[in-house]
Amino acid sequence: MPLDMMDKAHDARAVKLSARGVRIDFWNDRIKRNLRVLDGVDLDVREGELLAIVGPSGCGKSTFLGAVDGLVKMRAGEIRVDDVPVDKPGADRAMVFQQDSLFPWRTVLRNISYGLELQRRLSSGEIRDRATNLLELVGLKGFGEHYPHELSGGMRQRVNIARALATDPELLLLDEPFAALDAQTREFMQVELLKILARAKKTALFITHQIDEAVFLADRVAVFSARPARIKAIVDVDLPGQRTLETKLQPRFRDLQERIWRLIEEEAERTGLLTSTVGA
Amino acid sequence: MTSVTQDIVEDDAQGGPSRSLWARHENSLLGLFAVTAFMLFWEFSVLYGWVNPLFTSSPSRIIKAGAAMVRDGSIWNDLAVSGIEFGLGYGLAVIVGVPLGILMGWYRRFNALLEPFVNALYATPRIALMPLIIIWFGVDMSAKVAIIFLSTVFPILVNTMTGVRTIDRDFIKVARSFGASDGQLFATVALPSSVPNLLTGLRLGLGHALIGIVVGEMYGASAGIGYMMQTAGATFQTDRVMVGIIIIAAVGMALTQGLKMIENRFEMWRVDHRG
Ligand SMILES: Nc1ncnc2c1ncn2[C@@H]1O[C@H](COP(=O)(O)OP(=O)(O)OP(=O)(O)O)[C@@H](O)[C@H]1O
Ligand SMILES: [Mg+2]
């Protein structure tokens, strides 16, 4: 893998996340055996970067993110955030889950302040102020006293993102956060996410099944191989200028999309998930 | 934003003055009509001698008997005695059932220890324990409190336990991801998410408590609504028995309805609104 070389060639920013030889096994009760999910994942993510992760379904993307968050135990290898080894969840990382997973018994504002309440670092007044600011950041001013079930899917995912940002993490982990949204809302949310991240100045890992979403959002796209997963390739997204909805119309955008699609297709074919050709 | 305001507008359109009184209250009005018709039929059946009021009583006789009991004050004593028994028995069941249910739902080992007892007692009709309770507590108020407690504690306990046990795993993951300790996980996820089940348990427990009162007092007592019904029944005072039945039914319906309304407010927690 020329992975390290590539990074050094064009990027002098500090390494925010570094994963080395991450191996994860799960006990499978049906076959009474350990199932190897990740088999030596090496990855560096630089400060301020948005790295997208794509790969065949079930290859271990969520598992990897769980390991970075400290929720999933590794069998071997090491994950460091700001050079500190990860062994449990911490305030320097926050996860945005696929299902919006907001607490239905908490108002929007109190969902956002959840992490801060657990930390008991700030007074309740400070927590409220901070949550209110975040509410504004994600464009939901005035909805603080609503309950999640009173919001649309797109609004709920904004709250979900705000909840993760509340504890001011260094690293934002997003596991298919827009998967449940309709195509239109999804495109809109992609633009919004970029704005939010730019304003909040965060490093982010973003899992998605949607290749156009990965290319649109990411500085680089990591393609996972089929299970047991390693990093098959890292694709630099060298799109000029600001990302807007027009970006998706550029020929370069299509090229990148196709290249990533071919990489995933290769994996799928290699493992027999695909037999005939599938159009992009 | 739009969805919220739109909802309100639609509600207005439906509940507005354009809809007639009948359309808005159709169900309640039909129910009222049926009950009134039944009462009239009952009254006239007695009036025309189709049935013997000694067995069936009649609405006017029940009202008269009720008024007499209010006038001589006997009903207040019975109500107070039954009310205190109910309050103590049900209160004790909540105090014991809710924490035990939470602990059994949360700690696998604790559950394994107590499960055989809970299963056995939950499966037994608690009325079957009445003779034992009489032996232990005699026929005074404590026996009634005991039977009400035993009738009520298990539905409360079992439902609370189910609530704690069926917490959405996603919520646990979220809490853990934010670094929640065991205690915090418990307070911020386990407790609130089991509230709907807990309320269901309280409502089911209510029904069992009323059975406990009546049966307990019929078995042996010196006062209370159940006791009043028992003695009235033994002397063929059907009117007084009916008064007792109506009191029990009214109290049961009122309390159940009250809890049902609280439950409805929390119902949205149980429904999966995601996706
Ligand atoms: N807690 C667990 N216990 C046992 N096996 C698990 C567990 N979590 C995940 N797995 C298994 O690990 C493999 C990878 O799962 P993971 O959720 O990481 O995949 P994924 O790449 O995120 O898939 P998708 O794209 O469908 O979300 C799957 O085969 C899954 O069955
Ligand atoms: Mg996944």
The helix/strand order of chain B is HHHHHHHHHHHHHH
* CATH-assigned fold name of the largest domain in chain A: Rossmann fold
| Rg on CA atoms of chain B, Å | 24 Å
Helix content of chain A: 25-40%
| CATH-assigned fold name of the largest domain in chain B | MetI-like fold
Strand order of the largest sheet of chain A: 6-7-8-3-9-10
Number of strands of chain A: 10
CATH class of the largest domain in chain B: Mainly Alpha
Biggest sheet character of chain B: none
The chain-level mean pLDDT of chain A equals 88
What is the level-2 CATH architecture name of the largest domain in chain A? 3-Layer(aba) Sandwich
Mean pLDDT across all amino acids of chain B: 87
Name of the CATH homologous superfamily of the largest domain in chain B: MetI-like
Strand content of chain A: 15-25%
Biggest interface, chains and residues, is:
A-B, 34 and 26 residues
Characterize the quaternary organization of these chains.
Answer: heterodimer
Top CATH class of the largest domain in chain A: Alpha Beta
Q: Brief overview, please?
A:
Chain A is α/β, with parallel strands linked by helices. Helix content of chain A is 36%, strand content 24%. In chain B, helix 6 (74-106) runs antiparallel to helix 7, helix 8 (130-137) packs across helix 9 and helix 12 (195-219) packs parallel to helix 13.
